[in-house]
């Protein structure tokens, strides 16, 4: 984001990433059979979301979520778009780098250290986290501060499920996410483009909001490496960089924690980073956005960006009385 490249346009997937048609058809017929058999989660949305992946990764289905606002009803991005146009600077700064280089990331074995101001700190193994709460499918808009957006069907559960279990103390006001920074698995960590590890944070009420998702999968499968395997957060009303990928620690703090982009360019990236079409980034207007997968070029359709990315009804009250120009 900090760096401007010649390659800000959309990169087409490699031929090797394109799913053989026979595989898609095979999967589709399996899903239709499941739907016919009365599988309740196989709603139209879930079908639309689930027919797309190549089926190379393990299945991770989720029931449609009952959390208000959890499904946009908009068309989801193609799996190829969602997995070939990424920001994951640990693998390089170009949009195509994560898809090219994230194969070296080992998402298993994996554990997450939960620490700081909680009564029950500890190390949670990935398998324990996968079983901690029922998996839900949530179809969220992701709006990047660079001016593009995508709709992605995530699989996971509210971060609040984990937070409740570790019993935060009264003094815990913020949550920080610390992500993996391993040179051996992540070639981009050798560059100094950011101070590693990539860290992000939320205020406690934001972290506890039911829309804040701890995501383990997308499109009915486990997360591909380039999308933040094996677990990440997805905070749909904030710019995409708040949604930290490949998390290794979650810290509960009293003071507002450090975040990577705020540290790198505080005048450009604030702690809150709520999607707000009225507050421009110094280099990019936030008034509208390009939906990945839609037309490209001079006459590309642009959509108006919505306040809080369209989640105002659910999250607006978290910011009542705050000056959102100062708290950008
Ligand atoms: N998490 C880590 N660890 N490293 C990153 O570089 N990039 C962020 C966010 N999480 C990033 C990260 C940015 S800028 C965006 S827009 C989203 O991930 C992109 O998520 P996606 O590639 O799954 O669409």
Question: Could you please describe the fold and organization of this structure?
Answer:
With 328 residues, the protein is of the alpha+beta class. It has one domain: Sulfite Oxidase, Chain A, domain 2. The chain has nine helices and 13 strands. It has helices at 21-36, 44-50, 79-84, 97-101, 126-131, 159-166, 204-208, 260-264, 312-315, and strands at 63-64, 111-116, 122-125, 136-143, 148-158, 174-179, 199-203, 213-218, 221-222, 232-234, 247-253, 288-291, 303-304. Strands 1, 4, 5, 8, 9, 10, 12 and 13 form an eight-stranded mixed β-sheet that branches. It is globular, with a radius of gyration of 19 Å. Residues 3-47 have low confidence and may be disordered. Bound molecules: ligand MTE. Ligand MTE binds next to loops. The site of ligand MTE has 18 residues, from loops.
Give the N-to-C terminal Cα separation: 16 Å
CATH architecture, by name, is Alpha-Beta Complex
CATH-defined fold name? Sulfite Oxidase, Chain A, domain 2
Order of helices and strands: HHEHHEEHEEHEEHEEEEHEEH
* Helix vs. strand class: alpha+beta
Number of domains: 1
Instruction: State the shape.
Output: globular
Strand content: 15-25%
| Total count of helical runs of at least 4 residues | 9
pLDDT < 50 runs, ≥5 residues: 3-47
Helix content: 10-25%
Radius of gyration: 19 Å
Question: Which descriptors would you attach to this protein?
Answer:
five-stranded mixed beta sheet; 19% helix; Sulfite Oxidase, Chain A, domain 2; alpha+beta; eight-stranded mixed beta sheet; 328 residues; disordered N terminus; 9 helices; binds ligand MTE
């Amino acid at each position: 984001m900090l760096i401007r490249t010649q390659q800000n346009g959309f990169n087409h997937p490699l031929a090797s990433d394109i799913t053989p048609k026979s595989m898609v058809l095979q999967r589709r017929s399996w899903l239709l059979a499941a739907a016919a058999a009365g599988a309740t989660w196989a709603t139209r949305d879930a079908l639309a979301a689930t027919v797309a992946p190549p089926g190379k990764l393990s299945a991770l289905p989720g029931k449609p979520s009952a959390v208000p606002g959890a499904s946009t009803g908009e068309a989801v991005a193609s799996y190829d778009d969602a997995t070939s146009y990424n920001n994951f600077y640990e693998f390089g700064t170009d949009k195509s780098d994560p898809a090219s280089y994230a194969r070296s990331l080992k998402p298993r074995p994996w554990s997450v250290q939960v620490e700081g101001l909680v009564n029950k700190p500890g190390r949670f193994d990935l398998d324990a986290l996968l079983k901690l709460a029922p998996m839900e499918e949530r179809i969220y808009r992701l709006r990047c501060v660079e001016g593009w957006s995508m709709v992605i069907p995530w699989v996971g559960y509210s971060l609040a499920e984990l937070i409740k279990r570790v019993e935060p103390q009264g003094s815990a006001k913020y949550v920080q996410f610390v992500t993996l920074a391993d040179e051996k698995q992540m070639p981009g960590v050798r560059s100094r483009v950011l101070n590693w590890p990539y860290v992000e944070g939320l205020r406690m009420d934001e972290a506890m909001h039911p829309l804040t998702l701890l995501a383990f999968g997308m499109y009915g499968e486990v997360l591909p490496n380039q999308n933040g395997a094996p677990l990440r957060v997805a905070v749909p009303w904030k710019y995409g960089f708040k949604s930290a990928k490949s998390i290794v620690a979650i810290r509960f703090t009293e003071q507002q924690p450090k975040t990577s982009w705020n540290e790198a360019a505080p005048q450009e990236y604030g702690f809150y980073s709520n999607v707000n079409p009225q507050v421009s980034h110094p280099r990019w207007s936030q008034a509208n956005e390009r939906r990945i997968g839609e037309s490209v070029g001079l006459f590309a359709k642009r959509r108006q960006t919505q306040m809080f990315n369209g989640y105002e009804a659910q999250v607006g009250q978290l910011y009542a009385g705050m000056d959102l120009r100062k708290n950008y």
